[in-house]
Structure prediction request, 224 residues.
Amino acid sequence: SQTIHQWPATLVQPVGSPLSLECTVEGTSNPNLYWYRQAAGRGLQLLFYSVGIGQISSEVPQNLSASRPQDRQFILSSKKLLLSDSGFYLCAWSVQDEQPQHFGDGTRLSIL
Amino acid sequence: GDSVTQMEGPVTLSEEAFLTINCTYTATGYPSLFWYVQYPGEGLQLLLKATKADDKGSNKGFEATYRKETTSFHLEKGSVQVSDSAVYFCALRGGSNYKLTFGKGTLLTVNP
Prediction:
């Protein structure tokens, strides 16, 4: 069966520090991969999605970037974190061109 | 563009009460519709889905019917339990789009 792993589960970082969140999927090949952010009291905002290795689409301009170095690995990064980057970050995968999406357990990021 | 509107919460019910969470959508083409549930501190889990008009999705006592004429996908449960306390998200995938559009979420609290 397919599984998705995100880490770390929680992270506290100072403003201006770098960020790297990792997501891996097991049990499937060539999935679509997604990064979402959930700000407090708000819905989910799609940040990035990827349909293949090295293929990244950005949904909103921001301080973050994403990379897909391997088929089932999706990384969310920042060179310098802002206070506004605080939130709950969720990775998801889906079978190519199909739904639904399946979510990881999320990373709670606090910026101090 | 695509959009999803959910009833604003929070919703507080007593155990065994009837639950309705309203969801309406705007989309081009023939979207697929989903309800996701997020338990405290966790990622999102798919609760149920419907892929065409008049389909009824059901799971764990929850139901939702895809109503094209009213562009709605209301979530219902006949008798809620304390363990149903969570945030519920309505979402759609447009006909030719692999991205999900989410509503803002509705917090449900069930008291014993």
Notes: The longest strand of chain A covers residues 44-52. Chain A has no helices and eleven strands. Chain A has a mean pLDDT of 91. Chain A touches chain B at residues 6, 32, 34, 42-44, 46, 49, 51, 59, 90, 92, 94, 96-106, 108 (CB under 8 Å).
